[in-house]
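Figure 6 in text form: structure in, sequence out.
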């Protein structure tokens, strides 16, 4: 039977007032490449995406557009039951403004203080509620990449994490390292996001079929 892959992709936006928001530079290219290769592998795909590159819908590919982290989480909650594999490629805004102004904020003062509150962690929710599902995350870091990625793999209870250098965001290429729950690691040479997507989906299918058993290297 065809596997169903649930993917989050792109950035989330947290509005401050009707015209301004907090977000990041995620283009959604990584999530799109993962969705397209999963379709080539005959999987069913559900993509929940923040504002980013378009992804074509089809009988086998459902695309749900969201704006904020809370909307992304709500869509994930509705669709998680259909997934065999969850892949969190989205660059989720970690914080949102405590108050959203209904009217455009005027630039009357030289300093404007914004109070932010932590957003829910979507992938952590997925890992806490999974039922025989594989959960794959990403880590995007400017420093201490592998140690932060290992920490996230453990703390978020993931099966695999794709550790990316910060230069990956918005670009067409990446050179990630895949870290697995069992301690195995796999470095991928600099290549297109389409090629990285193949590695991720092939590993996801392998982990799912092997019932999450893996042999640690070295
Ligand atoms: O979109 P592109 O331009 O193609 O770039 C791809 C990418 C660099 C955005 C992507 O491959 C990537 O690395 N995504 C994760 C970026 C990120 O925000 O990483 P993080 O280290 O902050 O988060 C770790 C994991 O937790 C991620 O799987 C993230 O989706 C998830 N998360 C984080 C915070 C949150 N509140 N909820 C989450 O689910």
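Output sequence:
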């Amino acid at each position: 039977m065809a596997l169903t892959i649930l993917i989050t992709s792109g950035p989330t936006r947290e509005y401050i007032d009707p015209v301004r928001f907090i977000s990041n530079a995620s283009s959604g290219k990584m999530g799109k490449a993962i969705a397209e290769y999963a379709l080539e592998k005959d999987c069913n795909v559900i993509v929940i995406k923040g504002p980013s590159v378009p992804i074509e819908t089809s009988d086998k590919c459902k695309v749900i557009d969201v704006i904020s982290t809370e909307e992304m989480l709500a869509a994930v909650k509705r669709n998680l039951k259909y997934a065999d594999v969850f892949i969190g490629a989205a660059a989720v805004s970690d914080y949102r403004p405590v108050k959203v102004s209904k009217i455009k904020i005027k630039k009357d003062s030289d300093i404007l203080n914004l109070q932010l509150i932590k957003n829910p962690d979507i992938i952590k929710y997925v890992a806490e509620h999974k039922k025989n599902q594989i959960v794959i995350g990403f880590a995007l870091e400017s420093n201490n990449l592998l140690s932060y990625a290992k920490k996230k793999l453990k703390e978020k209870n993931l099966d695999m994490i794709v550790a990316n250098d910060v230069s990956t965001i918005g670009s067409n290429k990446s050179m990630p390292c895949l870290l697995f729950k069992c301690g195995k690691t796999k470095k991928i040479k600099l290549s297109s996001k389409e090629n990285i997507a193949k590695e991720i989906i092939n590993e996801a299918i392998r982990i799912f079929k092997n019932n999450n058993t893996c042999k640690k290297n070295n």
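Caption detail: The chain has one domain: 4-97+111-217.
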